[in-house]
Amino acid sequence: MNARIKFTLLIAIPLLVGCSVIAGGAPAGSEQVRQAAVAGAFYPADPNELAAMVDGFVAHATVPVQKGEIVALVAPHAGYPFSGAVAGHSYAMLKGRPTHLVVVIAPSHFEAFSFTSVYDGDAYITPLGRVPVDKEFARKLVSLSAEIKLSSHGHVPTAAGAEHALEDQLPFLQRALGDFQLVPIVMGDQSYQASRALGVALAELIRGTDTLIVASSDLSHYHPYEQAVALDGKTLNAIGEWNYLTLSDNFQNRTWEACGGAPIVAAMIAAERLGATRAQVIKYANSGDVTGDRSRVVGYGAVAFLKEDTGHREATAKFSLTSSEKRQLLEIARRSVESAVKEDKAHELPANLPASLMKDRGAFVTLKENGELRGCIGYTVAMQPLAETVRDVAAFAALRDTRFRPVTASELPQLKYEVSVLSPLRRVSDVNQIKIGEHGLMIVKGRTRGLLLPQVAPEQHWDRNTLLDETAMKAGLPAKAWRDKDADLFLFTAVVFGETEISRDLTPEEGPAWPTPHAQPGRTVPGSP
User: Fold this and answer.
1) SS3 letters for 286-338?
2) What are the residues whose beta carbons fall under 8 Å from the beta carbon of 433, sequence distance 6 or more?
3) How far apart are CA 498 and CA 334, in angstroms?
4) Taking residues 179-187, what's their average pLDDT?
5) Fewest CB within a 10 Å sphere: which of 55, 117, 487, 513?
6) pLDDT by residue (tens digit) across 151-166?
7) At 197, is the secondary structure helix, strand, or coil?
8) In angstroms, rounded to a whole number, what is the distance separating the alpha carbons of residues 475 and 367?
């Protein structure tokens, strides 16, 4: 029997469910080293067999045309017979890239702790040899944030299990790069704040060096094949749109799945601040593609974050809707409000809606009566299909906007509807990017967020600085809080349309395309002051 097939058969069950083999983390001599813990379970323990397997995965990988310098990668971490082929696509991208230091960011599957753990030892060991830790870099990194600590938590095996997510990446790196130093990081806190703290600190230390960042993550777990493909497609699409705030929110509220979601977000934040502007999804597959069992699969993705050589990426992606699609959304909003007010039930969406209306997007619905605001609620996070979002927030605007009493049945004939469909959020690297009449703003500072819809600044005749101050105050922060080092600004556009525009049958190019608001995951928020 072929050695690789034999190895696969022997370990198929433990690899799929993510079991680990407990192995020692005992010191070698005077050094503190982390011994290989999952060799013989997640990958071969024999160095020759391991090297041949890794080389085979990389050799058979398709390397897309690469425009720009690789700043960071995402690679999966399941057992090699399951995810190794996808990981090979990530590491095949490293051919010819000089790299002396690699930062590997992994999640903690077995041990609970509330910080980001940078290994406090001297080296990691695999069957292919010793990988030294850059202890000076590690010390500098933890000095930059109280959320990052030197620790063995998440690194050294415990009775609960041995962490495989970081170790799984090392044989690939050893074969792709040869000698390199390592910064091993395991994230115990999966929050956006933890990802931001790590990403910002890494960017500060890495800038101007050839350091590579690797985020270790599988995608969805144990769904039927078609459901996994759809769910993972949403995650990979958000990565491709560079929308890491929505990624983090949807990982936190479990709308989307990636066991290394926080490492992905941290890698994107660091890569962005290091000049990366494009995410390239290289390969997607799941365990069903390997085993043939499509009943319960695990998803795997290979992604590269690139610093492009030419041009500057647009701050927000272009997006439009046809007049027909706008009419459908307005009809959904109207019928949703009528069902909620008259019958206290959700409107049943029509079948066979256009694909554009079934794509996850954030949206707001504004209700006006006799020209006056009567309610405005929305989701800024793209957490469900656009048609469902418009249906839900329309009903919320009618009944749950706490600034107003609930809409009554007698008011329904007088209501006018406006829908704002939001673009992905992009962080503002320079406030001069913000354009009044085109961009809406969201501020994120710690766990505090605030937004203003794009329509507000032109209506109030604000200039850019006033918009910045007002956005901060909308979050309950001091007016100049947007200047704080720990505050992030995100801009966005929106396709905004109401019944007046649709009645004129405007084309998408003629319709207004303003920026958007912001919100927290799964929460409705008022869309205007």
Assistant:
1) EHHHHHCCCCCEEEEEEEEEEECCCCCCCCCCCCCCCHHHHHHHHHHHHHHHH
2) 315, 439, 491
3) 11
4) 97
5) 55
6) 999 999 999 999 999 9
7) helix
8) 23
